[in-house]
Design goal:
The protein has about 140 residues and is an alpha/beta fold. It is about 45% helix and about 20% strand. The two termini are about 30 Å apart.
Length: about 140
């Protein structure tokens, strides 16, 4: 399955925040939206990703004082992207190798969606079920 197909089913809603937003305000957004990561954008360009992992590290290192500092101080600035034509297998490898859980998807330099590890696992499970059902049908047909 391709990234474009996942986004077609999932939708292309992307939650973004500006890099100057305080970490505390970003935490409120993560909770309100019930997501594990937010894309950090400036002038319609992805400049970072703020994940729950980034928040935990910020608080572990800076305590409560970290909550008033800007997201740009703690976000992952080396963003790894996905393309609409890439396969789930490629994404799984990239996510595993880089130990990341969210990949922003770009088409012609424009942010069009985010694929999470949950989306990838859901896709893999659906493909495995489909394959198993096809095998059952084939065996039953004799």
């Amino acid at each position: 399955m391709l990234v474009a197909e996942i986004l077609k089913d999932k939708g292309s809603v992307v939650f973004t925040i500006p890099p100057g937003l305080s970490l505390g305000e970003a935490c409120v957004e993560l909770d309100r939206l019930k997501v594990g990561a937010l894309m950090v954008c400036q002038n319609d360009r992805v400049v970072g990703v703020l994940s729950e992992r980034d928040v935990v590290r910020a608080i572990a290192r800076h305590g409560q004082a970290g909550l008033v500092r800007p997201v740009s101080d703690f976000m992952t600035a080396e963003v790894v992207f996905a393309g609409a034509g890439e396969t789930v297998a490629i994404l799984m490898e990239r996510m595993t190798d880089r130990r990341i859980r969210h990949l922003p998807v770009l088409i012609e330099e424009r942010l069009v969606g985010v694929i999470s590890i949950g989306d990838v696992v859901k896709c893999q499970i659906a493909e495995a079920k489909h394959e198993a059902e096809s095998l059952r049908t084939y065996i039953a047909a004799g």
